[in-house]
Amino acid sequence: MRGQPVVAMVCAGAAAWLVLSRQRELRRARLLFSGGGEAAPWEAEAWRRWVPAVRARFRPEWLCLVGAAALAVLAGSVLPLVAGACAVPLVGRRLRAAERSRERDRRAEAVIALCGAVAGELRAGWQPGQALFWAARSTGALGGDEAAVLAAARFGGDVPEALRRAAREDGAEGLAGLAACWQVAVDGGAGLAAGVDRLEAALRERRDQRERLRAQVAGAWATVGLLALLPVVALAMGWALGADPLRVLFHTPAGLCCLAVGGLLEAVGLWWAGRVVRAGEAP
């Protein structure tokens, strides 16, 4: 019974090797009969169409099913496959949240660059509308509202209102400060360059404070990840000592009970630890 998973893995590896070898031989024959060392035009065209389609459809969360399938083969049970299928949407949501966070940080950095570029253009002698136009084109900080803001800047529209609308997107909150500086400069005659300079300094200080806070909680996140890996380490240690923990967990009533209770405690513990760390990350 213990040798069956190993035999299955060896057979799967041999099958994959045979398939790859056959594909290499077929490609070599095509190159030989196409008359040179370069791929045939139809093959290159098909490759160029296939790679972007795969990249567009591939989602990292589907790797949960691959790992669950391997564990299901080793354990001889369908439960890991069910757990992997349930984990796919959860992992996908977490990955999408991380991508939104990175996009928010990139947008905030672009807003800081926009403020610095506007101040530099104003000191170089450009008018405010021209300075905003060239700075926005070079930094891309206005996102989907760029056309509306630049049209207002070039044709005498309501620039502060357009900037406030652009500031509603995640990471672009600093544009509301730029709108306030613009409004004060237009209504009160104050220097726009000085106000934008102070705004840029404030945004940079906020960014640096956020980076310092993330550096401080990085150790806590590492601890959470280590706690998540402890059950896997325990299973590996049991296997190294000659036991068969997967058979006990998936094929005995006591093991199934321990698996259910342990999985529930593991999920609750990770959720609680992540909530504590995220609360510490909040500004």
TrEMBL record:
Localization (cell): Cell membrane
Membrane-spanning intervals of the chain: 65-92, 217-241, 253-273
Swiss-Prot/TrEMBL keywords: Cell membrane, Membrane, Transmembrane, Transmembrane helix
Membrane topology summary: Multi-pass membrane protein
Ranges of residues in domain Type II secretion system protein GspF: 118-238
Domain of life: Bacteria
InterPro entries associated with the record: T2SS_GspF_dom (IPR018076)
The protein, known as: Type II secretion system F family protein
